[in-house]
Amino acid sequence: MANSHAFRFMVILGSTLLLHIRYRIMLRSSQLLVMLTALQCVWLSMSASASAVEDAEQWLSEYVSFDDTFSIALSKNKIRFKGCKQKQYQLVVNQQFTKRFNVEAIVHYNKGLLDYGVLTQRVKSHEFEVVSWWDKGSYRVGLSHKIRPEHEISIPVAEVIQLPTSTTASVYFEVPLMEDRHTLTVAASRESWKSDSATIQLPWSKAHDNQVKLQYAIAF
Description:
The protein contains three helices and ten strands; from the N terminus they run αααββββββββββ.
């Protein structure tokens, strides 16, 4: 019952944010049409360099800087070492409703490669997330609901394996440290999925994965 209420709450917040964004879009429809066209080109180009992503983010900010309460950020992260490549793109739309409360709508695009000959695996996935943040002054608390639609893993020996849709509920606790650029975040999440839409039939109908993550970030 608690999870149901939390989900409904997140849906209401997400709907409110989308309605507000739609209203803002109507104010500058011509500028946003150009922005969305450029964004689509950047988003579909997986070979974009870090500088290109930064230029796109700056360009987007100029066209959607309605006021200090609304912002858009586009970022790219990657990890690469022998036998492994990972890239992640994030588009974050932030709306500040009050001094102490804001909502983020986030679109994730993930791409990974494990290169081990016949065991090579390729995977691409999209994630859609809504995070509500309460600023308590000395710390922030966030509630998140994320959906990852079903996606595929490409394996030479099995061609394509279909993975099921998953949903994740998370609680974030964020504390700034000695300097504003240093942030400590503790996250507790629960991911759930059903196997009825997967390519491989599992002996159980659904599963859960509970995680606790600790992150220390420094902004340069």
